[in-house]
Design goal:
Length: 280
């Protein structure tokens, strides 16, 4: 990223520090960072669950300050008080999600939190854990139209031409919500026929479409099969046009995945299809 004079702007380093995987710190931190037109260099430091590891984090953060970089930003979801206090000594803008949210909740509820490391991603709730695993297995077993034998058990069947993002959305729905999501690729034969593929007609009410801009589709396909008919712009335009025409004609809800995140697509599907989450 450059400024108005064409001079490269320095990146601001952001650390996501966690006593577990760092997923929560990344998710919350990213939500905030997207509000700013700043170039960020992002570093995730997981499993910072004792004082020795915290000291190493502080040293790593402080090294940036000594080489003349702008003060780093640290997002932390560390639970242990002694580890958090050590992290606060770093020469950085320190944002403690635990302190920001847990302390006010303790005051409001009149109950002290458990301060248990990894509670958000644990397997204490065996029912939810089993639901998540079962949904994941379903998504993987019903990926890319490999089999349609258990579509009657699907909560949603995602359809679209090849490389529109069906698989990652299906897996995300399973992992995050415990939703049984199958996905089926619309082939050229399907598109030429024009209607809902015969094998999908019994599950018409479960269909949800994904589309994409042809230029973006060409770019994605070219990485997989360069200089092929499959990746040509003409082929991509034809497939997208026919797929969208089918969605409109058959009144199948769909979303354009070109500039939309997997999370947003999944949330749209849950909302528009009225799906019930099995895990939270």
């Amino acid at each position: 990223m450059v400024d108005e004079n064409g001079v490269p702007r320095p990146k601001r380093t952001v650390f996501f520090v966690s006593d577990r995987t760092g997923i929560t710190a990344e998710t919350l931190g990213h939500s905030l960072l997207t509000q700013f037109d700043v170039d960020f260099e992002q570093v995730t430091l997981p499993f910072v669950d004792n004082q020795d590891r915290a000291r190493k984090v502080v040293e790593q953060v402080n090294r940036l300050s000594t080489v003349g970089e702008q003060r780093p930003v640290v997002f932390s979801t560390v639970v242990q008080d002694d580890v958090r206090e050590l992290l606060r000594t770093a020469n950085a803008a320190f944002f403690d999600f635990f302190d920001a949210f847990i302390s006010p909740l303790e005051q409001e509820l009149g109950v002290r939190s458990s301060h248990t490391v990894g509670q958000a991603h644990g397997v204490g709730d065996t029912k939810e854990y089993s639901a998540r695993i079962d949904a994941m297995n379903f998504a993987l077993n019903h990926d890319d139209g490999v089999t349609t034998r258990q579509y009657d058990k699907a909560d949603v069947v995602i359809v679209g031409v090849s490389r529109t993002g069906k698989t990652p959305v299906s897996v995300y729905l399973a992992m995050q919500s415990g939703i049984y999501a199958a996905n089926y690729p619309l082939t050229e034969d399907d598109l030429i026929n024009g209607g809902v593929p015969r094998i999908l007609k019994p599950y018409r009410a479960k269909l949800f479409g994904l589309t994409i801009r042809p230029e973006r589709l060409q770019s994605i396909r070219a990485e997989r099969r360069p200089n092929s008919r499959y990746a040509s712009l003409q082929q991509c335009q034809m497939e997208v046009l026919r797929a969208e025409a089918m969605f409109a004609r058959e009144k199948i809800r769909f979303v354009d995945s070109t500039n939309v995140s997997i999370e947003e697509i999944a949330t749209t599907i849950v909302h528009q299809c009225g799906l019930k989450r099995r895990v939270y």
